[in-house]
């Protein structure tokens, strides 16, 4: 009888491709036709609210859930039917899941031992992974003898030890306090730079993590991919109100569109207030409703190009800035302005303004979706 060969692990740079991947539990579809490509060496953040299907998407790549339809590719390999241990993937799950009865070094060696790697190679790889995550001095400790941040590093070292071409991270920082989190964020950015061939899918519902780390962000909601782009694209030019509100802070104002002017700006009426903003290429149909998005830090206090008058409802001092909440025509507008020596009093009448190029026009939030191909009959 032949001895089983250790599972071959492909370590060539490989991207991840979801091809119409759907996952269902019973009748409940929790991932709906996901089409998404992570390029080799790219860090893609999966961002979305709780229950939107982020972990499910990760588990489909790892092989812990079987799609009801669609295919998962790693590089050019179709891995849809492959068991998890044959995929050569490193994964850090929500909550780390270190083995409590094993020392740090044995935790990190786990994947290599499961693959029956030679003993010398295991020792080398474990040392390398612990070095990379700054945990070399803790090899003999047990997980209970480590802080949350240190356990986090061990979990990452364990995932890296097999030298995966694909790394899956599920909310890796969610258990850490705010200060540790920002330190680990810098560490992860460094790891991403040091591992240019490793494709990373990074699940988070923290937009700061996504904006800071990701080469691109995929925005999920209700089991579906809503948007995908670089952090700058999604932040500066969001395509939907959902993306605008989930990637960064946003004021979303219901407006009625007017005529396009010779300077390329479009009229937008917010109640009785007439505004002019850049249309962003979308054909404007006068009379149509739309959502105007402007970021709070781009709203200034005082009169300006697009002036809005309202009543101060709340003033929040945030150290370097003041956040003003101002009621305008039944809408509460957020403005983040440089710290004011004399902030306005509650109930005071104030003027706010923003530049035409700092606003983005989006499809009206409540409007029904357009029928593709204009396929209405009469
Ligand atoms: N094993 C399971 N059996 C049945 N339903 C499940 C199972 N795992 C997940 N679900 C459901 O699938 C949906 C998506 O879950 P998923 O864990 O992918 O969400 P998520 O985006 O990772 O959320 P969170 O941010 O809270 O971690 C949820 O409605 C969840 O209840
Ligand atoms: Mg999750």
Automatic annotation (TrEMBL):
<keyword id="KW-0067">ATP-binding</keyword>
<dbReference type="InterPro" id="IPR003439">
    <property type="entry name" value="ABC_transporter-like_ATP-bd"/>
</dbReference>
<dbReference type="InterPro" id="IPR008995">
    <property type="entry name" value="Mo/tungstate-bd_C_term_dom"/>
</dbReference>
<protein>
    <submittedName>
        <fullName>ABC transporter ATP-binding protein</fullName>
    </submittedName>
</protein>
<keyword id="KW-0813">Transport</keyword>
<dbReference type="InterPro" id="IPR013611">
    <property type="entry name" value="Transp-assoc_OB_typ2"/>
</dbReference>
<keyword id="KW-0547">Nucleotide-binding</keyword>
<dbReference type="Pfam" id="PF08402">
    <property type="entry name" value="TOBE_2"/>
</dbReference>
<feature type="domain" description="ABC transporter">
    <location>
        <begin position="16"/>
        <end position="247"/>
    </location>
</feature>
<dbReference type="InterPro" id="IPR027417">
    <property type="entry name" value="P-loop_NTPase"/>
</dbReference>
<dbReference type="InterPro" id="IPR017871">
    <property type="entry name" value="ABC_transporter-like_CS"/>
</dbReference>
<dbReference type="Pfam" id="PF00005">
    <property type="entry name" value="ABC_tran"/>
</dbReference>
<dbReference type="InterPro" id="IPR003593">
    <property type="entry name" value="AAA+_ATPase"/>
</dbReference>
<dbReference type="GO" id="GO:0005524">
    <property type="term" value="F:ATP binding"/>
</dbReference>
<dbReference type="InterPro" id="IPR050093">
    <property type="entry name" value="ABC_SmlMolc_Importer"/>
</dbReference>
């Amino acid at each position: 009888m032949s001895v089983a060969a250790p599972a071959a692990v492909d370590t060539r740079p490989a991207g991840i491709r979801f091809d119409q991947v759907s996952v269902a539990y019973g009748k409940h579809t929790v991932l709906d036709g996901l089409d998404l490509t992570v390029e080799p060496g790219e860090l893609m953040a999966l961002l979305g609210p709780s229950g939107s299907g982020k972990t499910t998407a990760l588990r489909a790549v790892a092989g812990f859930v079987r799609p009801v339809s669609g295919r998962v590719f790693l590089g050019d390999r179709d891995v849809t039917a492959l068991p998890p241990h044959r995929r050569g993937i490193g994964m850090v799950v929500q909550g780390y899941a270190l083995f409590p009865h094993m020392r740090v070094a044995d935790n990190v060696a786990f994947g290599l031992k499961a693959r029956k790697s030679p003993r010398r190679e295991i020792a080398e790889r474990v040392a390398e992974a612990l070095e990379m995550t700054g945990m070399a001095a803790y090899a003999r400790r047990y997980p209970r003898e480590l802080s949350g941040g240190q356990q986090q590093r061990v979990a990452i070292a364990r995932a890296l030890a097999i030298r995966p071409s694909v790394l899956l991270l599920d909310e890796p920082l969610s258990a850490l306090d705010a200060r540790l989190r920002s330190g680990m964020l810098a560490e992860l950015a460094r790891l991403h730079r040091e591992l240019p061939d490793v494709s990373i899918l990074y699940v988070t519902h923290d937009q700061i993590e996504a904006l800071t780390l990701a080469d691109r962000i995929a925005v999920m909601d209700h089991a579906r991919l809503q948007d995908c782009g670089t952090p700058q694209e999604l932040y500066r030019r969001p395509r939907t109100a959902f993306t605008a509100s989930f990637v960064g802070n946003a004021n979303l104002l219901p407006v009625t569109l007017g005529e396009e002017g010779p300077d390329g700006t479009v009229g937008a009426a917010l109640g009785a207030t007439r505004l002019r903003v850049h249309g962003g290429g979308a054909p404007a149909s006068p009379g149509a409703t739309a959502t105007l998005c402007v970021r709070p830090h781009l709203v200034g206090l005082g009169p300006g190009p697009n002036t809005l008058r309202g009543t101060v409802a709340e003033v929040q001092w945030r150290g370097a800035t003041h956040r003003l909440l101002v009621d305008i025509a039944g809408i509460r507008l957020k403005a983040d302005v440089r710290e004011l020596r004399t902030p306005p009093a509650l109930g005071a009448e104030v003027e706010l303004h923003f530049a035409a190029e700092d606003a983005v026009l989006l499809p009206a939030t409540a409007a029904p979706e357009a029928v593709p191909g204009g396929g209405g009959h009469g």
